[in-house]
Amino acid sequence: MTSHDAPGTALVTGASSGIGWEYATRLAARGWGLVLVARREERLDALAKEVLKEGGAGVETLVADLGSSEDLSRVVGRASGNDVDLVVNNAGINGYGSFAEVDPDLLTRVVNVNVVALTALTRAAVPGMLARGRGAVINVASLLAFAGDLPPDPLPQRAVYAGTKGYAVTFTRTLAAELAGTPVRVQVVCPGLTATEFHLGAGDTPVSGERRVHDEGGMPAADVVTASLAGLKAGEVVCVPGLTDAEAVAR
Ligand code: NDP
């Protein structure tokens, strides 16, 4: 991760679509070997084929539900392997909905994927990185970490989601301070509205109104990854505003 280092192995969670898919292809193009993590095996297999066709270094797929403690343990085991020099904690789910009505089990899953897994994978990887004298962790948060009460929703309906992203920001900034002076860097990326499957509520949440946002606005996932990888050496917080939700809806 420093100028004298060759790329090693990057573990990317949520690699089966959107921003994670983009991280994986971009890192492969830079010579990184990949460990791709998500639930949808067929998507991971398709990504692995694409990456190898483009001449990428090795690719492993790890089918896992990061909301399940058993599956998370397997991924933690891989993240603590002595070849993992970059962890991209990108997997995330939203759990939007009226707080008083939303399924409590869904909220627990949001916290498990967005907070517990991110923390556990960082904890698994950092000691080896410190021992080897190289490494980085990228945590994908959201601009909602700072402003979960912004429009367009008449009610925010995303207190827990925004809270998990606030955790990712504060956790990363505080850890960055602790790791200052070591060769290990941690970065938190805060994208604005991005055109991915996230707003379709795939599998997890039916999100009224969000399909419109997806169809009408949102920056490409590539913009998020470009800013993140460009900023990795410089700082621990990278905000990628793109369009605001309100601007996207107005388009
Ligand atoms: P996508 O829905 O396209 O991607 C989410 C990824 O997370 C998928 O690969 C999904 O894979 C994976 N994932 C979800 N749940 C689990 C789980 N339980 N276990 C393992 N993997 C899981 O959305 P984005 O690419 O947009 O989202 C990536 C990150 O960016 C998220 O953390 C999101 O909060 C954040 N973000 C997105 C914004 C946007 O506007 N799109 C804005 C700000 C932040 P699978 O279903 O195969 O498991």
Please give the count of helices: 9
Share of helical residues: 40-55%
String of helices and strands: EHEHEHEHEHHEHHEH
How many structural domains? 1
Structural descriptors:
251 residues, alpha/beta, NAD(P)-bd_dom_sf, globular, seven-stranded parallel beta sheet, 9 helices, binds NADPH dihydro-nicotinamide-adenine-dinucleotide phosphate, oxidoreductase activity, Rossmann fold, single chain
Give the structure's gist in a few sentences:
Belongs to the short-chain dehydrogenases/reductases (SDR) family. The chain is an alpha/beta fold. It has helices spanning 18-29, 41-53, 69-79, 104-132, 144-147, 159-179, 210-216, 221-231, 245-250; strands at residues 9-13, 33-38, 59-63, 84-89, 135-140, 184-191, 237-240.
Can you offer a commentary on this structure?
This protein has one domain: Rossmann fold. Helix 1 packs across helix 8, helix 3 packs parallel to helix 4 and helix 4 runs parallel beside helix 6. Helix content is 45%, strand content 16%. A seven-stranded parallel β-sheet has the order 3-2-1-4-5-6-7, with helices on both faces. Strand 4, helix 4 and strand 5 form a beta-alpha-beta unit. About 4% of the residues have low confidence. The protein is built from nine helices and seven strands, in the order βαβαβαβαβααβααβα. With 251 residues, it is of the alpha/beta class. NADPH dihydro-nicotinamide-adenine-dinucleotide phosphate binds next to helix 1. NADPH dihydro-nicotinamide-adenine-dinucleotide phosphate (NDP) binds next to helix 1. Belongs to the short-chain dehydrogenases/reductases (SDR) family. Keywords: Oxidoreductase. One of its GO terms (cellular component) is membrane. One of its GO terms (molecular function) is oxidoreductase activity.
